[in-house]
Design goal:
The complex is a heterodimer. Chain A is 29% helix and 27% strand. In chain A, a hairpin with a 5-residue loop joins strand 24 and strand 25. By secondary structure, chain B is mainly α. Chain B has a domain of 36 residues. The chains are: A alpha+beta, B mainly alpha. Chains A and B meet through helix 10 of A and helix 2 of B.
Chain lengths: 516, 62
């Protein structure tokens, strides 16, 4: 059954009749990133107004592949369980060259994490859950059919003019967050542009509904006989919806390729029959580009408005949620006067770093999937040829390296004998506790995690002591008998020691708020 | 110090050279390119040292 796009209610905003008091935060865009941003800020006690020019969730499934870290973030926003329950959990990927399987991978989610490695779930469901949570949150003022038409800022505030069905009004705010997508009107209004690489390649992306007995796996073909010389992807979503991506080549007409009479025969060749319903079709151009800076004084860019990647590594929506994770606590601290604006500069440095890692991985995958004539194609084809006869080459086959959070460059104290996976800069690893999960217990506060010892009392952090299970030992202690971790509100490890004194911890907490 | 060995290191290199040419004998130009590409990939994996490979690329490009 097609998804039921129910319009959200528009009400005439107060600002149409009298000027509204200055808001702390105005968010442009009620997509998954904008609404997640509002919920994250609300978790940190900051109210916001969210403006969207539309009044329905995303049409078409768009982002479908949500990574473990995204699910952990969504969980903190109250929609993680729902997303996993509705989503298709998958872990096996198969790669074919022509019509032969060259290799398969099993993401083999390690035991002892609340969230699976990946779930597939249509973007409209994630948006629906987030909007539901936001509508129920009194700190969030969601305004549909509110289209931002101009953006101004000075040293003290940002101002937007907004078009509604009832006329134009203005809002002022301490910070404006642009979560308005890859074609970001805010970015255009500010005259900013992306730097980076545009690939001369187009893909057809289609969602179809069909009843099939296909396993929950990701299937990727290089040069299949049903689509000669190009690449293809098939991926299962809930409600019997399947995602199909087909490489088209650069010399195709995107408008023509979107027509059902062109799309349906192509899909018939992929699935081998015509017993399906076309749900959504789009044609996209591969690009891996970003803004030079994500922080422009009082205007902050988050998600696709700041960076775009080609889609095969699931780094668009997932990258955006990591931006949200990184920005929320910092902006809250600046607005509450706990930190000065230098802390926001670390949103820029950390997330441009994360974005560059995503762009690097996506660029490599794109190059492998759509090699230029000459040496690029020669090596690509020979990797595929080798993959069927030598195990090493299978790992060189690149149909998308799936999203894992980057490890931020960190200067915090480290005890290198502790496990590498939880070093400073990395997201703290989840682990089961008696009555829940470690990441749930950490929540979104500054935490001193004491393992196998008593933590010194310090101001400005909650102390969490957990029993030393095998999983906790493996992820946090290794051979050590005790350790203390300082964990940021976004659950990134800031510092760790074998046995610190209170001063050392206090110093690091201060450094963290200063954004050093 | 270079990690790459650029002084004689292979016993009986004349025989290897002959074997290399023999592997290409009778191949079209495209087939030869394919064979060379596979060889590069196989040897790179065998060497398994990124520094050596980077220096080898630099030497070949010089």
């Amino acid at each position: 059954m097609p998804y039921d796009y129910r319009p959200f209610e528009y009400t005439a905003p107060a600002g149409l009749t009298a000027p509204e008091p200055r808001h702390k935060v105005v968010i442009v865009g009620a997509g998954p990133i904008g609404v997640a941003m509002a919920l994250e800020l609300a978790n940190h006690g900051i109210p916001s107004v969210v403006l969207d020019d539309n009044n329905v969730v995303s049409v078409g499934s768009r982002a479908i592949c949500w990574s473990k870290r995204s699910l952990e973030i969504l969980d903190r926003l109250g929609v993680g369980d729902k997303s996993v329950e509705k989503g298709v959990t998958w872990k096996v990927g198969r790669t074919f060259h022509r019509d032969t399987e060259v290799f398969n991978f099993d993401l083999l989610p390690e035991a002892g994490h609340k969230m699976p490695a990946f779930v597939n779930l249509q973007q409209y469901y994630v948006e629906e859950y987030l909007v539901e949570a936001a509508l129920a949150n009194e700190m969030i003022d969601l305004r549909f059919k509110n289209k931002v038409v101009t953006v101004h800022q000075d040293a003290d505030e940002a101002r937007v003019d907004i078009e509604t069905p009832d006329g134009i009004y203005s809002l002022t705010c301490d910070y404006l967050i642009a979560c308005d997508g890859a074609r970001s009107p805010v970015r255009h209004m500010m005259g900013l542009d992306f730097d980076g690489e545009l690939f001369e390649e187009r893909f057809l992306i289609a969602d179809i509904e069909m009843t099939a007995d296909t396993p929950s796996e990701r299937w990727f073909w290089f040069e299949p006989t049903f689509h000669p010389g190009q690449s293809a992807l098939l991926h299962k979503q809930p409600d019997n919806i399947y995602r199909i991506d087909l490489q088209l080549g650069w010399d195709t007409d995107p408008e023509e390729e979107k027509q059902p009479e062109k799309v349906i025969p192509r899909i018939e060749k992929v699935v081998g029959h015509s017993d399906f319903r076309l749900d959504w079709v789009s044609v996209y151009t591969f690009q891996c580009r970003r803004l030079k800076n994500f922080v422009h004084d009082r205007v902050l860019f988050v998600g696709d408005s700041a960076h775009v990647v080609s889609p095969f590594g699931a780094r668009g929506g997932n990258g955006g949620l990591q931006d949200v994770d990184n920005l929320g606590w910092k902006l809250a601290a600046v607005l509450e006067g706990r930190a000065d604006r230098d802390l926001l500069a670390t949103y820029d440095t950390e997330r441009t770093y994360g974005s560059d890692e995503n762009i690097m991985n996506s660029t490599r995958s794109t190059r492998f999937m759509t090699p230029a004539d000459g040496a690029e194609r020669l090596f690509r084809d020979q990797v595929l040829a080798l993959a069927s006869k030598a195990p090493f080459a299978r790992s060189w086959v690149n149909s998308g390296r799936l999203s894992v959070p980057c490890v931020y460059p960190a200067n915090g104290p480290d005890a290198p004998s502790l496990p590498k996976g939880t070093r400073p800069g990395a997201v703290a690893a989840d682990a089961p506790l008696d009555n829940g999960w470690l990441l749930g217990a950490l929540g979104g506060k500054v935490t001193v995690l004491a393992l196998g010892c008593d933590a010194p009392q310090v101001d400005g952090a909650e102390v969490l002591s957990v029993p030393l299970t095998d999983t906790i030992r493996a992820r946090y202690l290794g051979e050590a008998s005790q350790a203390v971790y300082l964990i940021r509100p976004d659950q990134v490890v800031a510092a760790r020691w074998l046995s610190p004194d209170a001063d050392a911890i206090s110093r690091e907490i201060e450094t963290m708020w200063k954004g050093k | 110090m270079m990690a790459l060995i650029d002084t004689p290191n292979l016993a009986d290199h004349d025989a290897f050279y002959e074997e290399l040419l023999a592997a290409h004998k009778g191949l079209t130009e495209a087939e030869s390119h394919a064979l060379n590409a596979q060889l590069v990939l196989i040897l790179a994996n065998h060497i398994g040292d990124r520094k050596v490979l980077t220096e080898a690329l630099a030497l070949a490009k010089r």
